[in-house]
Amino acid sequence: MRFICIALLFLMNSFLEANELNIPIKATSNHRASIIEVFELKPIDISNLNPNIQLDSIEYSESKGYKGRNSPGIGSGLIRVPKTKNEFYMLTDRGPNFDNANGAGKVYGKIFPLENFAPAIVHVKLENKTIQIIKSIPIVDSNGKSVTGISNGKDDETPYDINEKVIPYRPGGIDTEAIQLLPDGNFLISEEYGPSILVVDPTGRVLMRYLPKGKAKADTPYPVRDSLPEALKNRRSNRGFENLALAPDGKTAYAILQSPMGDAKSSQFSSSRTVRIVKLDVTNPLDMKVTGMFLVLQSSMSEYPSTAKQADLKFSDAVMLSSTKMLLLERAAKKVKLIVADLKHATNILDLPISSSLEPEEKSESLNTLNIEPAETSVVFNSVDVLFQLDTDKLEGLAVLTPSVVAFSNDNDFALGENTTNYPSRVWYIHLGKELPLEQ
After folding, report:
1. Is the Cβ–Cβ distance between 436 and 403 less than 8 Å?
2. Tens digit of pLDDT per residue, the chain (440 long)?
3. Residue 189 CA neighbour count, 13 Å, CB half
4. Distances in Å between the alpha carbon of 381 and those of 16, 59, 384?
5. Cα→Cα distances 355→144, 222, 263, 291, 404, Å
6. What does the alpha-carbon distance between residue 42 and residue 132 come to, in Å, rounded to a whole number?
7. Neighbour order of strands in the sheet with 335-342
8. Sheet arrangement for strand 120-127
9. CA distance 192 to 296
10. What is the C-alpha separation between 322 and 401, in angstroms, rounded?
11. Where would I find the H helices in 237-384?
12. CATH number, domain 2-431
């Protein structure tokens, strides 16, 4: 009880700090959403994120056509730094990459122009409409050597260098996507390859990585444990643990897949809306336990008029509002929504035989026939509410600042791939116009 009270006191202090910055706490009288402020990362050399990266490799990649050197992507994750004003920890993903495709458009894998780039935690301050980098913390292995974003094995995309030569798989590579700060000061990070959960210390050293059963490799350069449900190996390529939320007690975490499992090209799963949520006991982060598995349904593609396929919908970040309610960031083409998902009456399928199958994904429209109750959901924000002033749908970071204000951050893909306009990394403060159901 004392621990919970401390956690709630910290949450209230965060709101007080936000109020001192003139960020609203209450709902607006008309309950309409609005953009309060936008912050932007100005051009900065990517070596600022990885001080030990080889500059000659950057210059060589530039000579081969790499143009993202001054447009790093740091918005895959976003959390407040405790006891600070307008300071956040942000997160890169696996680093610069783009499709290796032939003239006919067939994709064979991913090109990594900077194959030794290390995913990084980035401590920033938002001030004067800019994102100012205070410190970058590259993630390193047990020997202090930078991990990379290169894929782990054949279940992932084949990695190529800038000359289109195959790069050997790296079992320690990670595609980081979400971050939380544990009560002991360590970071909890989720990533897509495993999919897996990592415990990382304040210096960036990996203390433990949790993978699905059967996926831990002996030659990984840091401690690993294959204690996550084996069924998670069925995650779609590049659609792993995009979301990670920490409950107010600081002892319970939830990892949420980005998309349904099962082959999106198969008629069995192409229309699936079922996404899995894994409940984790992180009381002892180095001995994490899986205590639950729940289901939540994504919106129907019909609610995203510019989206051609159900498989294009994604959950991209999450924040716990109470012990059972989480705020999910859902997105697809030209539209973003915030959805409150309540697990209070949801079925815990962890110990049921069906948890190891893909039947819940196949029967997302008739889960009741499986005696499964998914999380109850309700929409609390739609980007239509701000008249599409959010000029990107590539939002991947979410933080709750006050009961009525959230922050978004974007993944700009290091100015590669679909980012053909050199769109920068940004953070938005959004007033929802209403109050979220936060735990009191």
Report:
1. yes
2. 444 444 444 444 444 455 555 677 777 667 789 999 999 999 999 999 999 898 889 999 999 999 999 999 999 999 999 999 999 999 999 999 999 998 788 899 999 999 999 999 999 999 999 999 999 999 999 999 999 999 999 999 999 999 999 999 999 999 999 999 999 999 999 999 999 999 999 999 999 999 999 999 999 999 999 999 999 999 999 999 999 999 999 999 999 999 999 999 999 999 999 999 999 999 999 999 999 999 999 999 999 999 999 999 999 999 999 999 999 999 999 999 999 999 999 999 999 999 999 999 999 999 999 999 999 999 999 999 997 789 999 999 999 999 999 999 999 999 998 898 999 999 999 999 999 999 86
3. 34
4. 23, 43, 9
5. 38, 29, 17, 13, 36
6. 8
7. 314-320, 325-332, 335-342, 376-382
8. 77-80, 87-91, 120-127, 130-138, 34-40, 426-431, 405-410, 395-402
9. 19
10. 15
11. 359-362
12. 2.130.10
How far is 49 from 352, CA to CA, in rounded Å?
44
pTM of the entire predicted model? 0.94
Beta bridge partners of 279: 254, 292
How do the domains of the chain map onto residue ranges? 2-431
What 3-state class would DSSP assign to 59? helix
Give the C-alpha separation, 438 to 8, whole Å. 10
Question: Which tokens in the block code for residue 71?
Answer: 């447009």
Say which residues have a Cβ less than 8 Å from residue 289's Cβ, sequence separation at least 6. Answer: 227, 280, 281
Write out the H or E segment, with its range, that includes residue 57: helix 55-63
Task: Yes or no: say if 416 and 96 are a contact pair by the CB < 8 Å rule.
Answer: yes
What is the token pair recorded at 102? Answer: 């032939």
Contact by Cβ (8 Å): 247, 319 = no
196 neighbors 210 (Cβ within 8 angstroms): yes
Dihedral, CA of residue 275, residue 235, residue 74 and residue 89, to nearest 10: 60
